[in-house]
UniProtKB/TrEMBL annotation:
Belongs to the homoserine dehydrogenase family. Pfam families: Homoserine_dh, NAD_binding_3. This is Homoserine dehydrogenase. It catalyses: L-homoserine + NADP(+) = L-aspartate 4-semialdehyde + NADPH + H(+). One of its GO terms (molecular function) is NADP binding. SUPFAM superfamilies: Glyceraldehyde-3-phosphate dehydrogenase-like, C-terminal domain, NAD(P)-binding Rossmann-fold domains. The active site is at K203.
Length: 404
């Protein structure tokens, strides 16, 4: 019997319990022994839960998991940042294998926790933290062994992709699409991390660091979310034969790299334009393997729990990549060197001030209701500082990077 300690019994944790229960016999026949959840740590012991479990399974004491020498694998499925860091650190120090779904903790403490696992000869796996149910990190870790990765791109946030799809297909207003996303459980009650791009940024930090074999920190990534987009923008973007997606991208040439998360305007027939609703996708280019694309459910109870369990199986079968999968390359961020065309819309109340912005226009799309232009190739810093010097409020403009 392989004993597991589970931390967190919310969406992901309860999905793990349900799949392990339902697939008990199949898993036993593949692994030769049963996967058994011996203890579950939660925050609120009196909470009503949809899942039926023996009362004695649930605890509020982490030590009951940590100090149990029968437990060799710990699954961390809380949304907590600092507490989960403590749980993971103590578990690895005690020589226990750890699987987590928590992108925030992986992103913030990636190198430290990876080194700790390495030092203590145990596994630290986090497949579910990027792309939910899509198996992306394991193949990426394998591909980097034989390839130089020059580009990695993704749609990594289901909430943003859902909102943009509904706005594009059904002309919904941003607030309406967000409300539906919340009702359907795609978006959190506080959707800030999703719509401002920080959830995507954390995932790109993890992907980029593995892909480029060197540290890409959260601070290295230029981030702009989808907040502020209005149906007028969608109409203009449609007229260009394009759609808009929140795209995460890392590109490298030698030891130099760029990293960004931005609303990106892409041709309607391009690959990412057809990744819709709450789906996610990641594509990367390796010098030997060429382009690889991965597509699937980026979140949700069972897809995410499935990714967690696949990490557990890799630990039991010892089939995960051993050693430190993070490289030590010294990389130089050259984000400031990027110059690209942008779609810029500013609300009509700034009409007088906008004359200055016409100087950077390559094409003028609208001068009536809202003012919209396509800029020449410019750096994002230049546009943002001009917008700020004109005193244009954050919710009165929208800026989308144009990829031709
Ligand atoms: N949901 C998804 O589709 C999805 C997809 C990919 C990754 N993830 C990641 O997976 C993790 C879990 O997400 P979720 O949606 O399952 O969250 P959730 O539904 O909010 O569940 C969180 C669980 O963690 C427990 N918990 C919270 N803080 C704790 C602490 N300090 N100590 C012990 N237990 C604690 C809660 O206990 P109580 O039940 O007692 O409140 C709850 O059972 C997050 O990091 C999330 O980013 C989620």
């Amino acid at each position: 019997m392989i004993n597991i300690g589970l931390i967190g019994l919310g969406t992901v944790g309860s999905g793990v319990v349900e799949i392990l229960n339902k697939r008990k016999d199949e898993l036993k026949s593949i692994l030769g022994s049963e996967l058994f959840i011996k203890r579950i740590l939660v925050k609120n012991i009196n909470k009503k839960r949809d899942i039926s479990l023996g009362k004695s399974l649930i605890t509020l004491e982490f030590d009951e998991i940590l100090k149990d020498s029968d437990i060799s694998i710990i699954i961390e499925a809380t949304g907590d940042l600092e507490e989960s860091y403590n749980y993971i650190k103590k578990s690895l120090k005690a020589g226990k294998n750890v699987v987590t779904a928590n992108k925030a903790v992986v992103s913030k403490y990636f190198e430290e926790l990876t080194n700790m696992a390495n030092k203590n000869n145990c596994a630290f796996l986090y497949e579910a933290s990027v792309g939910g149910g899509i198996p992306i990190l394991k193949p990426l870790k394998e591909v980097v062994a034989t390839n130089e990765i020059t580009q990695i791109q993704g749609i990594l946030n289901g909430t943003c992709n859902y909102i943009l799809t509904r706005m594009f297909d059904e002309k919904l207003a941003y607030e309406e699409a967000l409300k539906i996303a919340q009702e359907l459980g795609y978006a959190e009650l506080d959707p800030t991390a999703d719509i401002e791009g920080y959830d995507t940024l954390r995932k790109l930090r993890i992907l980029g660091t593995i892909a480029l074999k060197g540290k890409i920190s959260e601070e290295d990534i230029l981030v702009r979310g989808i907040k502020g987009i209005i149906p007028f923008d969608i109409e203009q973007i449609k007229n260009l034969g394009c759609t808009v997606k929140l795209i995460a991208e890392v590109k490298s040439t030698g030891d130099k790299f760029t990293a960004m998360v931005q609303p990106t305007i892409i041709k309607k027939n391009s690959y990412f334009a057809n990744v819709n609703m709450a789906f996610n996708s990641v594509a990367f280019i390796g010098n030997n393997v060429g382009e690889l694309k991965f597509y699937g459910s980026g979140a949700g109870k069972f897809p995410t729990a499935n990714a967690v369990i696949s990490d557990v199986l890799d630990i039991v079968k010892s089939s995960y990549r051993k050693g430190n999968p993070l490289g030590t390359r010294k990389l130089k961020n050259i984000n400031e060197k990027i110059e690209e065309p942008y779609y810029l819309r500013v609300s009509s109340e700034y009409k007088k001030k906008f004359t200055i912005l016409y100087d950077m226009a390559d094409e003028i799309l609208s001068t009536t209701d809202n003012i919209a232009i396509i800029t020449k190739e410019v750096s994002i810093q230049n546009i943002l500082s001009l917008i700020s010097s004109l005193g244009i409020d954050d919710d009165k403009y929208f800026l989308g990077r144009i990829v031709k």
